[in-house]
Amino acid sequence: MRTHQQPSYILLNRPYSETSWIVEVFSREYGRIALMAKGARRIKSKLKSVLMPFQPTLLSWTGKGEVPTLTAAEIDLSDFNVYVQEMTGDALVCGFYCNELLTRLLHRHDPHHDLFDRYHQTIKSLSDPENASRLSSVLRGFERTIIKETGYEVNFVHESDGKTPLRDDGHYQFHAGQGFIRMPHPHNNTVSGSTIRAMSVGMDENTPPHQQAQGKRIMRDILRHSLGHKEIVSRALFYPKAKPQPPK
User: Fold this and answer.
1) Full residue range of the structural domain in which residue 153 is found
2) What is the CA 143 to chain-centroid distance, rounded?
3) DSSP letters along 198-233, please?
4) What is the pTM of this model?
């Protein structure tokens, strides 16, 4: 089977032999797939500058096996303003975080058109320096889409019974498989109903900091259930360990 010029993003590259890569790809029509990029590790390979994360690409491949062979790759010039070098600092870490979620949560060969479009817009937002102050809201939107697309949708409007509307002044705790359960008193693991309702419509740069912090915690709880025992490695990049100080 031959496939030509599919809109795709590179999630990661894994060395295979001394000259090749196994490329993890997120394509719009074929979902997450793995491709054999023969010769991509060679010094003079033209593929190196194309097979980079966060660049919109057009990929072609052939083969019926679990790992088809990449036959052509080029940058999608219809969105030429999106390049990895434009993403730095926290924005770059956010990009790796999104890639890790896709790699861990998506099954192979399962298309997700809406999620692909959301990822495309997320990368564009992360690449724009003017969005440096709203990285948190950009990630919350992507997280909402990926949990919905992978079958872990959560009701952000009603309590766990699916009927009672969330109260802005209520205090809730998330329980996997049930939803948000109202607690009689606030404690460290509860979030306000107003925060959950804000997440239902989408947080932005105008969302109060305390609600953004609570929203981040909610999504961590939801994703922890979705991922099982898998840890998100890229999160550690936000909190680098301090280098040990030499003895005085």
Assistant:
1) 84-236
2) 7
3) HHHH---TTS-HHHHHHHHHHHHHHHHHHHTT---G
4) 0.85
